Amino acid sequence: QVLSTINLGDRRATQQHVDTMVTKSEISGGPPPPLSESVFAFIEPGIHRCRDKLAVVSKAQRGDHLSEAVRESTGSPPGCNETTSLRWTYAEFFAVSSSLAENLAQKVEVSGPDSVMVTFIPNSMEYLLLLSASAIAKIGIASLDFNMLHKTRHAELESYVRQLQPSCVVVPDAEGAAAVDGILQQLQLPRA
């Protein structure tokens, strides 16, 4: 299919292009893993090569935010304090993501390859952790606008929940949990 979209004029040029793509793939870490692997399989080798390098920065969150999660996952406190912005190394990010994925796998009833986790978490470290954990746990993720949790948008929320049939729903607070629980009850779906 890729070959049919490449317009290089003759077959030899096309084969050279494919050979170049294979070479680039080998240089960047080898051929991609089989499709049965998770998206995370593409990312993991880089994490292990760059464990102590900076992975993520969240300027809007304090440096000690989620420090307990880092401490529990790595056995040591993060390198940030309350006066700095949140900064994690690949080792810290991977440890917390893996721990979260493990908890998801244990606590979320996955209903096959089409299982979906719905999140209402705005752009933050928590969102990145959920995205990574869903990739590790091989659970699809649907990130929805957290404003749908407001009463004025409950019809839209109901439509999405009905359509997605989530295995898990992550909300930012108790008010959001109450909104989702109400919709799940109304649709007679199990609490996700």
Helix content: 40-55%
Low-confidence stretches: 1-26
Side-by-side strand order of the widest sheet: 4-3-5
Count of runs of 4 or more consecutive helical residues: 8
User: Tally of extended strands?
Assistant: 5
SSE succession: HHHEHEHEHEHEH
Strand content: 5-15%
Major sheet details: 3 strands, parallel
Characterize the overall form.
globular
Considering the chains and any ligands shown, give keywords for the structure.
globular, two-stranded antiparallel ribbon, 13% strand, 8 helices, 5 strands, 192 residues, alpha/beta
In summary, what is this structure?
The protein is of the alpha/beta class and 192 residues long.
Protein topology:
Layout: H1 2-5, H2 11-27, H3 40-49, E1 54-62, H4 67-74, E2 85-89, H5 90-107, E3 116-119, H6 125-137, E4 140-143, H7 154-164, E5 168-170, H8 174-186
Parallel strand pairs: 3-4, 3-5
Antiparallel strand pairs: 1-2
Helix pairs in contact: 4-5, 5-6, 7-8
Structure in words:
This protein has 8 helices and 5 strands; from the N terminus they run H-H-H-E-H-E-H-E-H-E-H-E-H. The protein has 192 residues and is of the alpha/beta class. Helix 6 links the parallel strand 3 and strand 4 (140-143). Helix 4 crosses helix 5 (90-107).
